[in-house]
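F.,

This is the one I mentioned.
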């Protein structure tokens, strides 16, 4: 977090926060900071760092198949990644059979598949060219794994 982020969350001036964060020189003493200011800085909650709702790892075979099925239906990886709140690269890794993934992500993929598989991507703003490209790539991946 930057000094500005800390100041915004604590409701203090950024100058005061910078003074607290500044490391004192060897021959000087630490600055005197009021107890209420120190409590405001130390008591701020850390930014939300996404932790899995369901802990643990699971096999990725089902999630891989579900993502490949969505690709065959024309849903691009970037759209799926956006809806799952992950990077498109993560979607590609899972789809291409990463051995294990977080259980939370596997459950979200299952839910997303259930919600999107019967829908037409064109009705959700996906360009027809992107749909065709996604379907063609899914077909190539399917024939490559079958061979």
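My design for it:
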């Amino acid at each position: 977090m930057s000094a500005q982020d800390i100041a915004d969350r604590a409701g203090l001036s950024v100058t005061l926060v910078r003074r607290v964060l500044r490391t004192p020189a060897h021959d000087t003493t630490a600055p005197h900071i009021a107890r209420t200011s120190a409590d405001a800085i130390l008591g701020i909650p850390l930014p939300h760092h996404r932790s899995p709702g369901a802990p643990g790892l699971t096999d990725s075979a089902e999630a891989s198949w579900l993502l490949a099925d969505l690709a065959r239906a024309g849903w691009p990886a970037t759209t799926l990644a956006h809806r799952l709140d992950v990077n498109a690269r993560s979607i590609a890794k899972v789809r291409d059979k990463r051995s294990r993934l977080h259980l939370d992500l596997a459950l979200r993929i299952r839910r997303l598949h259930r919600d999107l598989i019967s829908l037409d991507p064109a009705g959700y703003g996906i360009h027809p060219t992107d749909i065709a490209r996604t379907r063609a790539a899914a077909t190539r991946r399917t024939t490559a794994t079958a061979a």
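The two ends are 50 Å apart (CA to CA).

Talk soon.
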